[in-house]
Design brief:
homotetramer; alpha/beta; Rossmann fold; Dihydrodipicolinate Reductase, domain 2; seven-stranded parallel β-sheet; seven-stranded mixed β-sheet; about 30% helix; about 25% strand; globular
Chain lengths: ~350, ~350, ~350, ~350
């Protein structure tokens, strides 16, 4: 029986972690913290999640120090970047395994991190030991990791397909265009709160932060260690009037159109996916839709070559709160604790 | 006082035409036809449109021949492509001005038309006299036209900005990527009816018909007569869970990055737009959103250069039922009848 | 040409007033105030409303005193209750006609007002001269009024049908049950702002403030001056996941079922409505829906007698921002300035 | 290991049954039938449900006779009323336990059934052995039942609270007003398919079938065996622009206001609920909302007495696909097979 704490359990990702973990027999949710909801029970705050004994669990204030967390096996950080830095540091060396769902430990280049996150990185030495939690790519390293930097939601939708396309990346020119659309639960943090009112989002659609988004260097970093090529990622995120789900279309220009053998690419991808429980390939790109992955840990993708215009197209969907956040975080926990990787996720 | 008939007045475009024309003092809606609603009044079928005397107007069956239409000054065809072919032919030479909102007369190449529309074109000789109704580009020809091929909704969102960018198209490589997202009123015709149920569309998002969409050659045709370059358009349409509005992002690769002088481009565009009542340029691309144009005849756009990835980006929004269909149709009618171009549209 | 100011032009009601008044030739919007948007143009803040010359109108801070308002013919107060009290007082005796869309002057009983609005009424002497702006009922008094207390949105949906049922109210027992459902633009003021986020409203539905809502005494006051009976109103408001529209179902128990002659009631209602431009009666209650009145000044209603359970049912719909606020405010202005009552509203 | 078949597995209720049953270790989904999807796998039709081995399950055509169903332990009928009659008859006496989610066996009065369902009842002799599947009320009879008539979605939202209020029903007059609002997944069957398009439902709200709905006699039948009183139910259903959830408000008039002791009523209700896993009481009626029960088997309710108007109010919410259909069906199956009642539902 593993003991688990969730710091920042009041947000969308925290709720999703609770939903996934609530009914597992092999882990126990010991501590959920939220300064906003401190003193209230799960039943009072999230009645739809209040199943079984867990409904009497009481939200606590964030702890003052790491003392009360040392008896945990896993601490999930569903916190802002600066808060995650603090806790990762505080728990370092205690033997408690930390799964950070913020962006604090995702970029290996300190200058790039500080530029895109707009603050100083106060725990950068930990970056060396942080394993990027793209499970399908880093399974082996995750097994013994003490600090997981869980991938961002947009990068999850991009990097999973790219990982299975790795053998073919040399075929394309260096500019990769990523056009992503996200539900409101993924697109907004505190900073965008004012723009997420019902009357602003409903019956609307818009791109946002197209000049600079911190998920752009994250994608670029991870794509660029897949092959010998150096890609430049153009990233355009949009806000969909839905609650959950990310739909990504990536466009790449083949260096040589005849060299792109779609049949070979698809067969290779399918062979790679044979043993993957959560990543699915669709032959028909028109079959991809948010509904197919919402509330699941699946990542679906498809490929298409536009011979007329000379453009290679990748379409992909994930649930930003599941495979793009809490789902993959639990998948990583499963690996770290030696449980079946799909436990609680199917 | 101009007499007006709308053939196919029961669909979304027909309704929008009624909404725009209902309260004008200088035109009179004489005939609205719909086999589905024949015998019912406007008040019974569309209570929200039933203002003033027009509410007693009775839907008629589509006429058997053109006899009853000959007293009209304008006939709007809000009909499927094959039906539009029939009526354009039947009214040819009668002096009645026809504004066709279907795709029947938009492509100058018969083989391309028949390939993308999947049928024989039975009225192709009329194509010579059909004027493509992109008002801002073809104002002069529209004045005396007898048959207008009103632009498609997606092409409207693309071609208006491109027209004002025409001086700079030589700067870019030949592949243009168009990633468009449309509300349900624009994305679906009869053929997709089954996929437009509430439970399919709500909280969902998907691309559709990415292999071939008839608006792709329409865009390509009109972009390719703007400059000496020959562009290839890659077009990816998506279905948004909203009712009206199209959001388009176009990506182009500069032949030489330093040659793209954004300041000069923006100034040129702004100068062109100085006298345009409906096309608006935004300096900040993050300001573009569907809400800014819904229920209006505006077409908004913005530009951004991603220096890092070497990609030029155009963002644009229109209301698919207004500037993308009924609004521009009325704008064209205004020009043809010598009324102020903005009459009924501001 | 009448000069008009809107105090509080940045909210939903203010926007709707601008939308309705923008293109009228007989009035001119001289001043729009909003502390939030001061210094910005209409084009910058509400691009969809920025039609014609009005787009260059600049939002001002709320004025410090009434001096700059004295040249106005009409001042609309789209402000919170306490702000409306201030301005109604400040403009009293200046000859400027005031149309107040807040609740400040709707209740004739000071104690009831102060109980339901939770504050002291600092301008109660003006209540004597305030005319309740339910146009169809108070047309004559409105003509020469200097201060209009425009009805609340929920009461509009209830009182219009009740006014046309006034000859039959004696048939019913004293308890009237009003079960209303409103879009978010009507249900929320500043106080409920936190509960109107997209993730809270979408795919949700709930009643709110069922113990006490200030529209309950407003309905009761106006129903009780229609007949000799003294009714007690039970009011249950709900929040719909839509932007605009109110759907009300009222239930009444007949004192004697046989005495309720539905045919006679309907004929009387229809006769009354014969000359009403905005109130419409539907024979089939299943035909009532929000879509029929959204973005219009119509108020639709229908009646049904459940013989089995002995319950009389009234169903009604209005657009809370039009007939329930800005639309009826302009209808009242039309009467006060001698313009056709439907001017700008059809 | 129990063997299970779902006849009519392609609809919303069928999907929900699959979702609930998919990962249970003690039951096996052996057969799912759907003439529409025959030959396709679960993975192809409902990718979000395609977890584990079940994803390869192939939809079959409805069987020609009961032969292939005789090896089943349970057959769920998620079929239209007339189809359910056929299968209940065909499986009668085979030992296979049938859980019918249609309305075929819910009314004990043949004439009333035929009037409200508009067809002849061809299997009425089975009605005697059919147990109405309101679990909390009929637990004992359900244990050994061979045919369960699972309650309708609206009745579930009404009858659960009424069952726990049974000691106090004598306090009220005979007319009960039920004002219910349902998401589209519950309100529509095949017959209303045309009215459930996205453009009809979104941003809309309406009552429907207010003259006669087959759930009205179902509620009346079950309320009237709770006490000595004979109640008459007035039922008004509405269509919400959400996918799942039912919100019901019931209004009753106390015979004597002072006799209604809210404190005593609430305490009695709470005591009854002490051991109920799925029915929850809220002290504050404003806390009730669809979000609290969506995707769960909970039924939440609250009570309020309006002393001013003399009206007793009951508010209740259920998920129409869970506690209102598939959830309670599985709850009943659990009881019939001797499994913990909450198995798979928490």
């Amino acid at each position: 029986m593993k003991n688990i704490a969730i710091i920042g359990a009041g947000g969308f990702t925290g709720q999703e972690l609770i939903r996934i973990l609530a009914s597992r027999p092999d882990v126990r949710l010991r501590k959920i913290t939220s300064n906003e909801y401190a003193g209230k029970t799960l039943l009072e705050i999230f009645p739809a999640l209040a199943v079984g004994e867990i409904k009497h669990l009481v939200f606590e204030n964030h702890p003052e120090n790491s003392e009360s967390l040392k008896s945990m096996d896993f601490v999930f950080l569903a916190t802002p970047d600066n808060v995650s830095m603090y806790w990762a540091n505080a728990l370092h060396g205690t033997g408690v395994k930390v799964i950070d769902i913020s962006g604090a430990f995702r970029l290996k280049d300190k200058a790039v991190w500080e530029k895109f996150y707009g603050m100083e990185h106060t725990a950068f030495p930990l970056m060396d030991s942080a394993i990027y939690g793209l499970t399908e790519k880093y399974r082996e390293q995750i097994k013994n990791a003490s600090l997981i930097a869980n991938p961002g939601c947009y990068p999850s939708s991009v990097l999973l397909p790219f990982y299975f396309l790795r053998d073919f990346l040399e075929l394309f020119e260096e500019s990769i265009i990523i056009d992503s659309k996200s539900g409101t639960s993924g697109a907004g943090g505190r900073k965008e709160k004012d723009s997420l009112g019902y009357s602003t989002v409903y019956e609307n659609f818009r791109a946002y932060r197209i000049e600079a988004h911190q998920h752009q260097p994250e994608m670029e970093q991870e794509i660029n260690n897949l092959s010998g090529s150096r890609f430049k990622v153009r990233f355009t995120p949009h806000l969909l009037p839905v609650f959950r789900g990310i739909y990504t279309v990536a466009y790449m220009k083949p260096k040589s159109l005849p060299a792109v053998d779609m049949s070979k690419i698809k067969n290779t991808v399918k062979a790679y996916l044979d043993k993957e429980p959560f990543v699915r390939f669709y032959d028909n790109p028109n079959d991809l839709q948010l509904k197919n992955v919402q509330n699941t840990n699946f990542a679906d993708f498809s490929l298409h070559l536009d011979v007329h215009a000379g453009v290679f197209i990748l379409l992909s969907v994930v649930d930003n709160l599941r495979k793009g956040a809490a789902g993959s975080a639990v998948q990583n926990m499963n690996i770290m604790m030696g449980a079946p990787e799909t436990m609680g996720l199917l």
